[in-house]
Write a structure and sequence with these properties.
about 40% helix; alpha/beta; about 20% strand; 9 helices; 12 strands; about 280 residues; TIM Barrel
């Protein structure tokens, strides 16, 4: 797919915005400044005071996306309608370009603060699709679902890839492509990461996540977002660009967070990979 004709909600290289970075980003001078930011809306909704004012100043000047934590799109409990109404207000107030969530669930009657795997079954596809359609109706916009890391596949009747493709197609929603999750799952479940990536419906990709992970054992990787991105994951990102064009890509880092200048240096690697792809295309042309 030609990136020049595909419309994305954001462009370039992005970074997750943390409260501890607000003042430094607003007052510092950086050669590599993010093209867009991402926040978890649950961490900001209903907040007042200084942090709320600072966030508003940022969203007025910069492009933002939101990546949710608690929608539990595959869960058994009814969707929280008040949360969805409040979320719509937040997304509209801050001109958020796209709202994404994990293709997983995180509890039943309570929040478990973990991402649990949805059974890969036709019944689960129908369940998730119906809930996605409800969410999109309340929010008044299409959402993006992220391919998640998982460590067991209870009750699976179909492959992860078939499940993901079916949900995206039948719900008519977009995709948040996490290349690190593809790599992690390929090691943990023994499949070809390149083949998985090549089979995805690229026309549905809204933007990309890239992150580091922890090597527990040669055949077990844990998706921690707490380390530098490894070369194999960068290579998988390059493959995504080769197939789709320059996709907007965001660096995730949630643990062992380095000082902001170091984090921006790693984010700048995204730009170098994007620029390298553009050079190769021009050279080939």
């Amino acid at each position: 797919m030609n990136a020049a004709v595909q419309k994305f909600p954001v462009h370039g290289a992005g970074l997750g915005l943390r409260r501890s970075f607000l003042t430094e980003l607003a007052t510092g001078s950086f050669s590599d400044f993010p093209d867009f930011f991402e926040v978890a809306p649950e961490n900001w909704m209903g907040m007042g005071g200084r942090y709320a004012r600072q966030l508003r100043q940022f969203t007025e000047r910069h492009a933002f996306v939101c990546h949710g934590l608690s929608l539990s799109i595959g869960g058994p409990a009814p969707l929280n309608q008040q949360f969805l109404k409040d979320l719509r207000v937040f997304l509209d107030q801050h001109q958020v370009r796209i709202y994404s969530e994990h293709l997983s669930y995180c509890g039943d009657e309570g929040q478990l603060y973990d991402l649990l795997p949805i059974p890969f079954t036709e019944a689960a596809v129908a369940h998730v699709v119906q809930r996605v359609q409800q969410v999109q109706e309340v929010l008044g916009r299409r959402i993006a679902l992220e391919n998640v890391s998982y460590y067991a596949a209870p009750g699976a009747e179909m492959s992860e890839l078939d499940f993901l493709q079916a949900v995206l197609e039948k719900a008519d929603c977009e995709m948040l492509l996490d290349v690190n999750n593809i790599y992690v799952n390929s090691i943990n479940h023994g499949y070809d990461a390149n083949a998985f990536l090549d089979a995805l419906p690229v026309q549905r990709i809204a933007y990309v996540h890239i992150a580091g992970h922890y090597e527990e054992a040669p055949d077990l990787r844990v998706d921690t977002h707490g380390a530098d991105v490894i070369p194999e994951v960068w290579s998988l990102l390059d493959r995504a660009y080769a197939r789709c064009g320059v996709l907007p890509t965001l660096l995730e880092r949630d643990f062992n967070i380095p000082p902001l200048p170091e984090l921006l240096m790693e984010m700048a690697q995204i730009r170098r990979h994007q620029q390298q792809y553009v050079k190769e295309v021009r050279h080939a042309g």
